[in-house]
Design goal:
By secondary structure, the protein is mostly helical. It contains five helices and three strands. The protein has helices at 3-81, 87-169, 173-186, 208-216, 239-277, and strands at residues 190-193, 221-222, 229-232.
Length: 278
């Protein structure tokens, strides 16, 4: 593979990672905003529960005040009934007393309903406060994670930016200019070519001579369709080839072991023969 293509291939990987990191860094403030929004929802539920309890308390006090007013009316009407001179006036006062008593009964029922609902509202507030407490802790945890992630991304980005400059410095000017133009236009500037003789990105079939030139890797070849720089990717060895290579390696290893054993045995026989000759 041409040396410029090798560097451009690595450069494209670096540029892709840089783009991903920049997108991640740009998205982190939105994630923090979403975390804050989720916490705001928990706060709103607590505030709503507190407001409901406060509203009930206000209504209860108002009902109690109205009951006091009605009781005062009843007391006044009864005092007046002692001084009336006709049955018609007396019946009118009794009617007013009856209306006041009915109003007191209605107000007392309302107070009872508020008192019954108070337990439910208090439980709702308790649950909302517990949820808010947990959400606040999770909020801080998530924000801290976002801050750490941003710091890690920026650190990696700085290293990649330096690596990018080094890679670009090692590429020919014309090849680099072509790479930048196609990368900006297409989003990627290089494309693999496999044994199907097609551009691995735009899927256009290459002319036989172009395919042979890509396989040789002696010069920079562009796809006629998408203008990406092409590089050849040899096929992986098949299973049979791997098994055959393994068998050969094993046979070679066994032969070496046998030869070493034979040499060792012969070396042991020599002293034995010399001792016998003496």
């Amino acid at each position: 593979m041409h040396s410029d293509v090798l560097r451009l291939k690595e450069l494209q990987e670096v540029d892709a990672r840089i783009a991903a990191l920049r997108a991640e860094i740009a998205a982190l403030p939105k994630e923090v905003a979403a975390i804050e929004a989720k916490l705001a929802g928990s706060k709103a539920r607590v505030e709503a529960a507190q407001a409901a309890i406060k509203t009930d308390d206000t209504a209860r006090r108002k009902h109690e005040s109205n009951i006091k007013d009605q009781q005062d009316k009843i007391s006044k009407y009864r005092d007046q009934s002692l001084n009336v001179k006709t049955n018609q006036e007396y019946r009118a006062l009794l009617t007013e007393i009856e209306h006041a008593e009915k109003e007191i009964a209605r107000l007392e029922d309302s107070i009872l309903e508020i008192m019954v609902a108070a337990d439910t509202r208090k439980e709702t507030l308790k649950q909302a406060e517990a949820t808010l407490k947990a959400a606040t802790a999770e909020n801080e945890k998530e924000k801290e994670h976002a801050r750490q992630q941003t710091a890690e991304d920026e650190k990696e980005l700085a290293g990649l930016s330096e690596q990018r400059q080094q890679l670009r410095a090692g590429v020919g000017e014309d090849a680099l200019r072509h790479y930048d133009r196609v990368l900006k236009l297409r989003g990627s500037a290089l494309a693999p070519v496999h044994d199907n003789q097609m551009c691995g990105i735009c899927r256009v079939i290459l002319r036989p001579q172009v395919y042979q030139d890509v396989m040789k890797g002696e010069e920079i070849i562009h796809c006629d369709s998408c203008q990406r720089i092409l590089y050849y990717v040899p096929p992986p060895p098949n299973e049979e080839a791997l098994q055959e290579a393994g068998a050969k390696k094993k046979a070679s290893s066994d032969a070496t072991t046998d030869a070493a054993a034979q040499q060792s045995a012969e070396a042991e026989e020599v002293p034995t023969r010399e001792a016998a000759a003496q």
